């Protein structure tokens, strides 16, 4: 009995960690838009936005290294074997993913961005099938189609016209694709390397590159004062804690078992967008799309979860 209780306690803990990660990610979309307002970044100020993003991730990297020390009790080491994993993750999980995401948020609402981002779960399944990690089944095909249908419903305008801008909704989808690829890479690299430290180092590299691109392009930030600048600290914490813990979960559990929780991100994203930005999230399109995407993700992972229980 005690052994079962201990096992259940550990199971509940990793589930709570996964939920915490999605809650933090959900808060990121409205927080980024609020940051644009505080730092006076117009949607046309592309390089200023990139500088803002780069500083966020550069700072997140150091916070992740501190988190690694606290959790493992060991000082993070930087060694030659980390070179390829750091570069690969910096390119996918930081530079490409967030370039598309930050650019999209200049014209896409926070709740919509969070919801479209959840399709990264479907992309993760597709990539896993392509590289041979998982087998494509009818259940997974139906799940993917449900998710894509959710995206179509989400982007229906008031007159039922499809709204899908190449530099808006498409960029969020590309960001989701990068997220999915990064999950597969993390699963591979974490077999040989401590995942939270790896997260920290790749954030430092990726953040430095994004910051350099933004600065050389003429991007500058206007200091909004101590109080409003805390939004940047919040975003740093979101990245370091959410990605650090999420990558740790990917190391210890199956990819599909973990990514199912990503369906909660748009729920938290919509909620925080309503609370922070007063966005109107109670349109039928958002509610129906949220349901379709959640059903699709659960359909893809339901069988695997049952098999795991057995």
Brief description of this entry?
By secondary structure, the chain is mostly helical. Helix content is 76%, strand content 0%.
Task: List descriptors.
310 residues; mainly alpha; 76% helix
Describe the structure.
The chain is mainly α. It has one domain. It is built from 12 helices and no strands. It has helices at 2-38, 46-72, 83-104, 110-117, 120-130, 138-154, 169-189, 195-216, 226-252, 255-259, 264-277, 284-309. Helix 3 crosses helix 8 (195-216) and helix 4 (110-117) runs antiparallel to helix 11 (264-277). The longest helix has 37 residues, at 2-38. The radius of gyration is 19 Å and the shape is globular. The protein starts with a helix and ends with a helix. The model has no long low-confidence stretch (mean pLDDT 83).
Number of helices: 12
Range of helix content = over 70%
Which structural class matches the secondary elements? mainly alpha
Number of strands: 0
Measured by DSSP, the beta-strand proportion falls in under 5%
Mean pLDDT: 83
Termini separation comes to 18 Å
Order of helices and strands: HHHHHHHHHHHH
Lay out the secondary structure.
Layout: H1 2-38, H2 46-72, H3 83-104, H4 110-117, H5 120-130, H6 138-154, H7 169-189, H8 195-216, H9 226-252, H10 255-259, H11 264-277, H12 284-309
Helix pairs in contact: 1-4, 1-9, 1-11, 2-3, 2-8, 2-9, 3-7, 3-8, 4-7, 4-11, 5-7, 6-12, 8-9
């Amino acid at each position: 009995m005690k052994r079962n209780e201990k096992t259940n306690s550990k199971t509940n803990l990793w589930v709570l960690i996964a939920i915490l990660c999605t809650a933090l990610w959900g808060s990121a979309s409205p927080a980024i838009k609020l940051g644009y307002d505080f730092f006076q970044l117009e949607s046309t100020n592309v390089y200023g936005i990139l500088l803002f993003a780069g500083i966020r991730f550069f700072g997140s990297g150091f916070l992740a290294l501190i988190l690694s020390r606290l959790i493992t009790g060991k000082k993070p080491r930087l060694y030659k074997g980390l070179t390829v994993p750091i570069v690969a993750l910096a390119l996918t999980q930081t530079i490409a993913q967030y370039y598309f995401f930050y650019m999209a948020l200049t014209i896409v609402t926070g709740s919509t961005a969070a919801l479209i981002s959840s399709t990264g779960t479907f992309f993760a399944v597709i990539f896993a099938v392509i590289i041979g990690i998982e087998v494509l089944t009818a259940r997974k095909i139906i799940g993917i189609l449900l998710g894509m249908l959710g995206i179509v419903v989400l982007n229906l305008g008031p007159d039922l016209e499809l709204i899908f801008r190449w530099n808006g909704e498409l960029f969020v989808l590309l960001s989701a694709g990068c997220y999915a690829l990064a999950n597969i890479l993390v699963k591979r690299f974490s077999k040989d390397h401590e995942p939270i430290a790896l997260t920290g180092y790749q954030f430092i590299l990726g953040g430095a590159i994004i910051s350099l691109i933004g600065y050389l392009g003429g991007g500058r930030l206007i200091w909004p004062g101590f109080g409003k600048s805390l939004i940047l600290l919040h975003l740093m914490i979101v990245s370091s804690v959410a990605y650090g813990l999420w990558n740790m979960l990917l190391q210890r559990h199956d990819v599909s078992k973990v990514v199912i929780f990503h369906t909660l991100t748009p729920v938290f994203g919509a909620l925080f967008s309503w609370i922070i930005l007063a966005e109107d999230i109670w349109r039928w399109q958002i509610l129906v799309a949220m349901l379709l995407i959640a059903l699709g993700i659960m359909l893809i992972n339901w069988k695997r979860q049952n098999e795991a229980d057995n």
